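anyone seen this seq b4? input:
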Amino acid sequence: MAGYTLPEGFTDVDMFLFGSALFVGGVLGFLLNAVTVVSFLRVRELRTPSNSLVFNLALADLSLNVNGLTAAYASYIRHWPFGQNGCAYHGFQGMIAVLASISFMAAIAWDRYHQYCTRQKLFWSTSIVMSTIIWVLSIFWAAVPLMGWGVYDFEPMRTCCTLDYTRGDRDFVTFMLTLVLLYLTFPALTMLSCYSAINKYFKKVHHHRFNTSLPLRVMLMCWGPYVLMCIYACFQNVKVISPKLRMVLPVVAKTNPIFNALLYSFGNEFYRGGVWYFLTGQKIAEPDPKKAKSK
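predicted toks r here
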């Protein structure tokens, strides 16, 4: 480790602490989402079109966990061992995971709206088409920087890679604002409208099945500060922000898979029964949303 120069603004202790935060968050998120994925594959009752969206969300979050664990490893050895091409792939893989994860959160909100408010059942054909479109678009937009619209480069600690927001050039500005519109503003508005309608329905029937404000709040809590920093970089020199703060924000964002597993799998009334059965072998009754209508 002595043969490598520490990045500006970081000490050995900083590298260890950031690496440990990435490691703990990555391992916890990986375990929770792995349980979600394996439960779907092993428990036949879980394999429904609606639950397949939760399954795909867990796959995306697993990929983000792997991305974070790779960064944790590099932080522990104090340098990035995979070269510039490895950095580009790391940024590309992480971007796919992020875009797919946020997209599936919006898709689940849309499906929940129809489950509770319109009583329209999601069919396998619709679920498969939606999931395919989400993955294809996520791969496409993540690949755009590899083709020259934006660049993947090192984050301040130089042990993980993402879209280089320090350049502030026209390519970064146009690409970042496009992503913010398509992959934060639109999903957030979708979630807001869907969960607001569900909340009104719950109030009407006097039966609140889950906290309708949590999904959007959690997403904005995790990704909001990091995205705001990227937007700031579109108009000002982001390097005036300390390197440590610029590393804290992506580390916080990478905790999102933990909360997603707790909210959409372990906290989902139509999914947690299957998880419980997978973990314990004991079945619990699955709720019927139609029963709430009579209350």
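The longest helix spans residues 83-118. The chain has a mean pLDDT of 91. kinda curious what u guys think
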